[in-house]
Fold:
Amino acid sequence: MKHFALALLLSSCLLVVSAQAVLNGDKHWELAQAYYATGDWELALGQYVMAIEANRRAGLAIPYYWHSSAAYTALLKLKDYERALPHFSSIITGAYPLEKKEAPLTEAALICYRLGCWDEFMRYALQYEEMVKDPARQKLINDLLANRYYELGKVEKALSHARRVGDDFWITKRLRPREINMSFRFRFRELIESQHPMLKNEETILVEIPLDSYYQRLLSVKSKPAYTRLIKRERMNWLEFRFPEGFPETLEIDCSIRIDIVNRDPLGARAATEALGPIAAYAHEARERHGLAYDLDNPLLAETLARITGNKPEGFDRLKALSGWMDTNILHPETLDARGITGYPDVAAYTRISDVLVHRLGDCVQRPGLFTAMARLMKIPARILLVFVYNGYWDKPEGFFDGAHGLPEVYDPVQKEWIQTDIIPEGQAWANHHYSIPCQYYESDDKPYNYLNLMFLTQDAIQMGDADAGRWSLQYVD
Structure:
């Protein structure tokens, strides 16, 4: 029956065509409706478009629902985002009531997000945010904006929009300021005897705890037995313990830190000069680290760096190019595992930093190590941060420390600050890692002979079977 009605309509339209040569917009609209009723979506969309064009050529107003019908036919029936977008855009820019523009703005932003048309997405999303003031109706757009800013690494803007989505939103959880309480219980006497026998006759021991930086601050620390004093050296925090009567059976350390996830770029990074003093040593230091010889004189490193950086300005731009290239070309074994790739080299067998480049593969210390080596070839001071990880905090507020991680940092003489970096896409802004607690960095000088690090003590305890030696708990503080 519906096809019979369509045939009658088509016949009447053909008579009009013979008389007028072209259909006016209304007739195209009627045809579109008839095709839509029979499920002929492509033909319906074609007639909607012809109706709109006929009225446009004639200088006639185009009803809102013509654009709306064309847009939703393309979007919902044909799944053709690119053909839907111009019709939503015409509603947004046309002389239609504001209440008619809210849904098209949402759809246009969603389409641009799906298509990766980021400039257009931002324009529509921000226009929607300006027009619609109801927080509940803003949630979807704020979700998209938070995701986009997060992809760009712009954490402050991402958090601003994420908060409007809610406290349980995953981006809000990842970026909110937090306080981490860290508790450690070591079988200390046994640990020293089995893991650090060279210290068994020492009365004074230094234990390094989480450091201070522009994104992390030590709030409090206590221990049992009590430490003698807190020693601060550059950003490091060392607890001094005196054990004149021998090591205690157990050592307990509790500390709390505040962490803010912030953007900071080493925009002033440059080749070191003597004016930097001791910091300049990090621009050329080549000692073995983490079992890898820093063979900075290997021509493969310099040749690769030259190809990566090309004619880019020295300093920050070259560091970003290096980061982006490594993100694409130097993979982590876990990435290969996820892709089902087997038979790759054993990264633990590497002996030189150039091995990471040769095999295009490295773990969470080797990849930062290669980044650091390449930065030093540019004479930029760089070193590796060693950090606790408290992975999974977004699902549960407490857990055990069971792993460590490495992150590069470079010195910015303009900001007079060591800036945490990472191996990320070139177009993404740098921010401190969201589940890491820096506790040590590789220095240009050797550590004191009686030095221990809280992170490595925890690893030692785990090897002794104490999987719960280090605990963390998190609470948001804003």
In short: Residues 2-20 form the longest helix (19 residues).
